[in-house]
Each structure stands twice: as C-alpha cells, then as structure tokens.
Design brief:
By secondary structure, the chain is of the alpha/beta class. The protein has one domain: Spore Coat Polysaccharide Biosynthesis Protein SpsA, Chain A (Alpha-Beta Complex), CATH 3.90.550.10. Helices cover about 25% and strands about 25% of the residues. The protein has 6 helices and 10 strands; from the N terminus they run βββαβαβαβαβββαβα. Strands 1, 4, 5, 6, 7, 8, 9 and 10 form an 8-stranded mixed β-sheet that branches. A hairpin with a 2-residue loop joins β2 and β3. The longest helix is centred in the middle third of the chain and has 13 residues. The termini are far apart.
Length: about 200
C-alpha cells in the first residue's frame, strides 16, 4: 500500500434551484450564516484546498455569501439539467495536481470537520477509489472520489450523482452513529423541523 501525497480538493454543489423547497436552500441561514458558507468554511477549516463552489440558481447571491472566503466559484449554466452538470463543472475547475475530490452538498451544515479530516486520512492511507460515510445502513455525503474516476463522473447525465459508481469500484465505508450529522434540507417540512418555523 502506497500512501497518497497529492491534493484532495473540495467541490461544493450549490447550484440547484431547490424546487421542493421553493427557495434556494443554499442561502438559508443557520446560526447567522448561509448554509453554503457554513459548508465551505468547514471544508477549509478541515484543511481542504482548493475548494470549488459550483453555483447556478441565485448565483449572484450565493457568490456574495462566500465572496470573502478563499474559495473558487464556478458557474454552472446548465444547472436545471440536474446535479450531473454541477459535478462536471466542478471537476473541470480542479487543478491538475488534484489526486481526489471530496464532494459536499450545500445543505448539510451539521457535517463535522472531524469527519472530513477522517475521510481524507482514510483515503490517503488506503487503496479505495471511493471513501464515504455510512450511517444506519445508508451511504451519506460527503464522498471522496479518486481522480481515476473523474472520467466516469463527467459522463453522468441528468440528476444522477456519483453513487451510481459505487458498485463498480472499491469503496471504504466509514461507520457513523449520529444520524443528525447528515441532516439535510429538501422540503418546507425539513425547514420547520430544523428551524422550528416555516420558510
């Protein structure tokens, strides 16, 4: 087993229109900050660099929310065609020395920085092409993909994400017990449950 020494870059998927919510969830505030900012800061604080934030819906507002962070924003003009277009835009913006990318969604503000560091450590010291958390039997985000899978990721279409590759490659699953770490926001009911009010 050879320890990997290259860069693990970050890609924050923050381009969606949040159709089920009816408002851009990446701009919802939690503890005084927009969700997209919280997720971006956690990646940076965990030592991930560079961090690429893919924007689309409400792009100007999302960019403004993170303008003072040391991140790179990339506009996905085709965000309405699904998450695959954001994956493609994020990968296209990665520097040439990237060894792997950790993909995060912009609506999971409770992911611990400790988990991000752990995923990277396991990737660097292991032989797996994919490293991801698993909780209560379900695969969760964020997910690390080795650069050898980028060519397959950019071939995805529509609203299909990278989990379609899991059955084709070696995967290390990192067990987690606290399901609350992975809470995301998709609907008004989610907002009401987390925030204690409707949006």
């Amino acid at each position: 087993m050879t320890q990997k020494t290259g860069t693990v870059s970050g890609i924050v998927l923050a381009a969606g229109g949040s159709s089920r919510l009816g408002a851009p969830k990446q701009l919802l505030f939690w503890q005084g900050k927009p969700l997209v900012r919280i997720v971006s800061e956690k990646l940076l604080n965990a030592g991930i660099f560079p961090v690429i934030v893919v924007i689309g819906a409400a792009g100007k507002e999302v960019k403004k929310a993170i303008t003072d962070l040391n991140v790179t924003t990339v506009e996905n003009l085709y965000w309405k065609k699904g998450i695959s277009t954001s994956i493609r835009a994020g990968i296209a913006a990665l520097p040439s020395n990237t060894e792997a990318a950790i993909f995060s969604t912009s609506d999971q503000p409770f992911i611990p920085e400790e988990l991000i560091r752990k995923l990277c450590e396991i990737y660097r010291h292991g032989d797996s092409d994919i490293v991801c958390p698993i909780c209560n039997g379900q695969l969760r985000n964020p997910v690390i993909f080795d650069k050898s899978l980028f060519a397959e990721l950019v071939q995805l279409e529509g609203d299909k994400g990278g989990k379609g590759l899991f059955g084709l490659h070696t995967v290390t699953k990192v067990e987690r017990e606290n399901d609350k770490e992975f809470r995301d926001i998709d609907t008004r009911e989610d907002v009401q449950e987390i925030y204690g009010k409707s949006c």
